[in-house]
Amino acid sequence: MSTSAITGRLYLGCPVWAFHGWRGALYTRDARREDFLPQYARVFGAVEGNATFYGLPTEATVRRWCDETLPGFRFSFKFPRAVSHDAKLEGAGRETEAFLARMALLPDRLGPLLLQLGPNFGACDLPRLDRFLASLPDGLAIAVEVRHPDFYDEGTGERDLDALLVERGAARANFDTQDVFAAATADETTVAAQSRKPRLPRRATHTAGPAFVRFVGRNVVADSAPALAFWVERVADWLGRGLDVHFFTHTPDDAMAPELARLFHRMLAARVSGLPALRSFAGEDEPASPVQGELFG
Fold first, then answer.
1. DSSP 8-class letter at 150
2. What does each of the 297 residues of the chain score in pLDDT, given as a tens digit?
């Protein structure tokens, strides 16, 4: 039952859109690569963009993404690793300018840009972060993800980080990996995810701008419901206070990420009133494939 009204907007999505394994579910069975984004964007309002961590898309590609989505859709692309990891935010002005220039081609579809810092970026590096954020254009939405233990100490390191983000108007990106590590049984993709992803304490921190969450769940999405319940309460509170929320669902190999997002939406819709409905998946709207007997009479 709905218990509260919302005034903020939920931007719900997945880590990628170019995922062939979603054919027959989120996408139609015969969807081609060029069909993926339009079919994705008819259901979800946002998407992460990890590809920019490794290289920049062409101008033509970015313009095509605009054409394939409706106003109101949001892309949250990741800063290049040349900026965040290789240079640790210093001496990478040219790479930063090139990235921001490419992102400027998405003027009304640009969500918070994700600045993911490496595990060796600790409290002693906060002056670098301060200088970098101060150098960015005014009005640019940034979400900063940290992985160093200094920023999960509930002490000076964490307080200093959050205060800096408040001062610079940047969001803290809450990266919740607790659920994937809590799986009682781990299949091959779960084991691989556990080996790649950091095991971080859960945080539900809002510093400035839109609230930003990346949640890693399980391949059996129903098993993630208890962990999602935690986020339903936090997101309901943020939305009720008028905050926009960007919430991205991951699963071990992301095959079930759309289903996990749909489960979260269903749980949140039962908690709040006024949440726009999700459209059905394109692959689920298709007529069923003819059975062998029908093909040959």
1. G
2. 456 788 999 999 999 999 999 999 999 999 999 999 999 999 999 999 999 999 999 999 999 999 999 999 999 999 999 999 999 999 999 999 999 999 999 989 999 999 999 999 999 999 999 999 999 999 999 999 999 999 999 999 999 999 999 999 999 999 999 999 998 777 999 999 999 999 999 999 999 999 999 999 999 999 999 999 999 999 999 999 999 999 999 999 999 999 999 999 999 999 999 999 999 999 998 887 665 445 444
Helix (H) or strand (E) run with residue 62 in it: helix 59-67
Q: Where are the alpha helices (DSSP H) in 93-155?
A: 93-103, 126-135
CATH superfamily of 4-285: Protein of unknown function UPF0759 (3.20.20.410)
DSSP, collapsed to helix, strand or coil, labels residue 207 as coil
Q: What is the pTM of this model?
A: 0.95
**Which residues are bridge partners to 74 per DSSP?**
46
Structure-token match 């809590």, residue found: 182
Is 115:145 a contact under the CB 8 Å cutoff?
A: yes
Tokens of 86: 């290789």
Q: How far apart (Å, rounded) are the C-alpha atoms in residues 133 and 123?
A: 16
Nearest of 104, 116, 33 to residue 78 by alpha carbon: 116
The full 3-state SS of 234-266, as one line of letters, equals HHHHHHHCCCCEEEEEECCCCCCHHHHHHHHHH
Q: How far is CA 203 from CA 189, 207, 293, in A?
A: 25, 12, 54
Which strands form 245-250's sheet, in the order they lie side by side? 74-77, 46-49, 10-14, 245-250, 211-216, 171-176, 142-145, 113-116
